[in-house]
Design brief:
Elements (H helix, E strand, L loop, with lengths): L3 E8 L2 E8 L3 H10 L4 H10 L4 E2 H8 L3 H13 L3 E6 L2 E6 L2 H14 L3
Antiparallel strand pairs: 1-2, 3-5, 4-5
Length: about 110
């Protein structure tokens, strides 16, 4: 079990003290795996594969709105599954590492054995 400590939070002009949980590797892994738990996020990872794609390209490929695609790409980015780089006003996305694609394929093989 991870150690807890106190933290002070400023809210509505008042300072509130609460417990803060330090996350360890299992909590980090849990958050990363939870970030995959949506059909659109899995479709985005599957579409990316080992390519780099713009938001617009991804939107066209998965057939969703730009706002929805951006929201789910943000969650995948926060979970460590995708990386992005800015080109002008937009971003180009790719799977974060080759390991990302391998993990995705492994999960597919577990769920859909051949």
């Amino acid at each position: 079990m991870q150690a807890n400590s106190l933290e002070n939070i400023q809210t509505r002009g008042k300072t509130v003290t609460r417990q803060r949980r330090h996350t360890g590797p299992t909590e980090s892994m849990s958050r990363a795996l939870k970030s995959l738990a949506h059909p659109l996020r899995l479709a985005l990872l599957d579409t990316l594969g080992d390519k780099e794609m713009s938001t617009k390209e991804l939107q066209q490929q998965v057939g969703s709105t730009q706002q929805n695609v951006l929201q789910h790409l943000g969650i995948l980015h926060d979970g460590g599954w995708v990386a992005r780089r800015r080109i002008g006003p937009s971003y180009i996305y790719r799977a974060n590492t080759t390991g990302t694609t391998e993990v995705y394929e492994l999960i597919k093989d577990i769920i859909y054995p051949s």
